[in-house]
Recover the amino acids of this structure.
């Protein structure tokens, strides 16, 4: 049994490939009983149009058959070329991959907090492929599926909170609760109570010192001018 999962449109695509090859075989009587040619033509069509929608493939094949005036069948490469030319001219390209209401472009976000070997806490964000059409395309490109990615994340050591994952298109970023480190004692010790301050606070303090220094200089200059009778 042929595995149709490697093709975007599955069994419907394979049926269209067979019908297209049979159109060519029927059109030229010299091929009418050549089953080897039929089999080879199917393989060529599958390899050449594996991402093409079945209806687009059949329309292109029908156009080539209905417009060809050749007495003998051309090489398979010529047939494929003419089919592609018709697809481009008719603007009948295969539609874009559709994503579902659980992902964005076939990807779903996963987030979790974890403590590393040094004891430091860090938030991790990874993307996994969804189960929809767009997600299956991502999987074919090597992106891990959502089930496998979740299983790997949930089995990690030193997890500080449950693993969160995207469940709808609206959740294109993790919730605010995921921004807060679950280990508040560690966070306070390493960030809130540390001597070094954020750059914004440092700049604010320096700005204040500069203003006070300028005011002192202006006051001194005004006193000097007053003593000179200006």
């Amino acid at each position: 049994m042929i595995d149709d999962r490697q093709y975007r449109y599955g069994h419907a695509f394979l049926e269209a490939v067979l019908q297209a090859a049979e159109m060519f075989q029927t059109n030229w009587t010299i091929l009418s009983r050549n089953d080897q040619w039929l089999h080879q033509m199917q393989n060529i069509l599958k390899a050449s149009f594996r991402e093409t929608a079945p209806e687009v493939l059949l329309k292109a094949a029908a156009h080539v058959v209905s417009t060809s005036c050749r007495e003998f069948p051309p090489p398979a490469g010529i047939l494929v070329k003419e089919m592609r030319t018709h697809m481009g001219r008719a603007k009948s390209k295969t539609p874009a991959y559709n994503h579902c209401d659980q992902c964005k472009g076939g990807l779903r976000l996963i987030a979790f907090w974890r403590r590393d070997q040094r004891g430091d806490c860090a938030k991790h964000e990874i993307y996994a492929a969804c189960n929809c059409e767009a997600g299956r395309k991502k999987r074919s490109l090597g992106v891990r599926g959502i089930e496998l990615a979740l299983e790997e994340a949930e089995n990690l050591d030193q997890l500080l909170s449950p693993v969160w994952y995207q469940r709808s298109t609206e959740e294109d970023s993790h919730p605010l609760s995921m921004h807060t480190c679950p280990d508040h004692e560690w966070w306070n010790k390493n960030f809130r109570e540390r001597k070094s301050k954020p750059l914004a606070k440092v700049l604010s303090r320096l700005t204040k010192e500069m203003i006070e220094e300028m005011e002192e200089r202006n006051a001194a200059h005004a006193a000097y001018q007053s003593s000179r009778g200006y």
Remarks:
- The mean pLDDT is 82.
